[in-house]
UniProtKB/TrEMBL annotation, chains A, B:
Belongs to the RecR family. May play a role in DNA repair. It seems to be involved in an RecBC-independent recombinational process of DNA repair. It may act with RecF and RecO. The gene is recR. It comes from Pelagibacterium halotolerans (strain DSM 22347 / JCM 15775 / CGMCC 1.7692 / B2). This is Recombination protein RecR. It holds the Pfam family Toprim_4. InterPro entries: DNA_Rcmb_RecR, Rcmb_RecR, Rcmb_RecR_Znf, TOPRIM_dom, TOPRIM_RecR. SUPFAM superfamilies: Recombination protein RecR (SSF111304). Transmembrane segments: none annotated. GO terms for biological process: DNA recombination; DNA repair. A zinc finger (C4-type) spans 60-75. Keywords: DNA damage, DNA recombination, DNA repair, Metal-binding, Zinc, Zinc-finger.
Amino acid sequence: MASTSGGPEIEQLIQLLSRLPGLGPRSGRRAVLHLIKKKEQLMIPLAAALDRAVDAVKVCQTCGNIDTISPCTICADPRRAETGLLIVVEDVADLWALERAGIGMVRYHVLGGVLSPLDGVGPDDLSIDQLIRRAPDYSEVVLGINATVEGQTTAHYITDRLADTGVAITRLAHGVPVGGELDYLDEGTLSQALKARTRF
Amino acid sequence: MASTSGGPEIEQLIQLLSRLPGLGPRSGRRAVLHLIKKKEQLMIPLAAALDRAVDAVKVCQTCGNIDTISPCTICADPRRAETGLLIVVEDVADLWALERAGIGMVRYHVLGGVLSPLDGVGPDDLSIDQLIRRAPDYSEVVLGINATVEGQTTAHYITDRLADTGVAITRLAHGVPVGGELDYLDEGTLSQALKARTRF
């Protein structure tokens, strides 16, 4: 009876929207109904925005960021090189999160994931070779890789590969999130926060 | 710094996707990154599906269903009139839910909401006049309106308006959902389920 719920065009739209992260079959249907109700204000602008983005979106060949130009806005901005900091992240979402935090004039390198032998992800599947080539242009490589087992393995692997370049290697500090409540934090974070305590 | 996270085309796409029900700014960004990563498999097909749906989608002038033809597939199917049942629902999503349940050869009437004086929704804002005109062609009008205060007010208003037509008016049964656990049900549902108990 699926075909009676709106015809093939609508069914296909539901199926595609359902594949977005955070949506499923039910919320995909709700999203499509919402789009159809707001046809002028939302559906038509979204269709146009998607068409434009399909044409415009590029992956930066230098750092792996997503932008409409390559090299991306960050790699093309010479002021970004002044601090000499190159922050290594797993994913474009991490880069965007750091940019939203306004951390300043830095450059990034997007690995595209972490080493994961079980999932068949080896060094050649990540942009590690490109990182090794870029690193000597910077004074410090900051590892902004997530504190998971795979993330830490990847961080160690990168540190080994960068050992000969003489570039300083640091990692983001562990500790209590600003505004976080101790009660909700895991033991690893708390013990790191105590070890790295600073004078008040 | 928002413009550095991918250029205006990507920002606009994030903003539009964030307005879908079930998504917010954070999940909108995740959705856009997912789309860009799956450009060939998801982003381009979704852009094409949206363009097709924008052109194809029509609201059925008879019942308010959404389809690619008007009258819709259900209203155009003469077998649907055989049972003489016309089910009144608030929203297209309710119609689709009943269709997925495979309830059989019935027709529907989508009100487009419920009476809500506080929100300024009066009888003229819903398709109640159209319902009154359609009802005499059917032997029974089944009220499938949600059991909220506004829904029940709307059901009473429709019942009053249909009183002169001589059409039988029923409502969907209240009771324990199939597979539902008593422990999780509200008292209103449980007391209705006891009142309407059936022989085992």
